[in-house]
């Protein structure tokens, strides 16, 4: 007796590990081809497929109705610190500016130095600027570990490393969260200037 293996199984396994992007051509094509069957299969497991064809990413999440303490957790959840969340919002803001501008490329790629310069405006200077920049470096590394940044080009000089800001960040930080957080950061920055 042969066991039936679903044609979408490789994509399902990939989705369990994390988001799938359009850049992963064969997985992306298979995902689009079998999205109806995959959606039905995931529903049986208490999961939902989130597919953004325009931005080119997909991931699975728990159906909120199924999310109680006794249910099995299929999807890895990551909680972020406040500073990690701030950096995520700043990266999302960079993406929003990129998408509004005259972008000739679909992907946003920034050097570590550029991300640090942008983030530096929003992080309170600690005892020293050197320590603050090291802290931002650590946050950039965490964003890469969490799958929001992907190293596009390595460089001998760390600050010249290039990172692709992955569009999956839009799923974590939607435009409403972005606007709210930016308003808070602007108000916080204004207070610092008044007291600084």
How would you summarize what this structure contains?
This is DUF4194 domain-containing protein. InterPro entries: JetB. With 196 residues, the protein is of the alpha+beta class.
Outline the structure in words.
This protein is an alpha+beta fold and 196 residues long. It has 2 domains: 9-66, no CATH class; 82-195, Arc Repressor Mutant, subunit A, CATH 1.10.10. The chain has helices at residues 9-17, 25-33, 35-44, 82-100, 112-120, 129-145, 169-172, 175-195, and strands at 20-21, 47-52, 57-62, 108-111, 149-153, 162-165. A 3-stranded antiparallel beta sheet has the order 1-3-2. It has a 3-stranded antiparallel beta sheet with strand order 4-6-5. α4 packs across α8 (175-195). The protein is elongated.
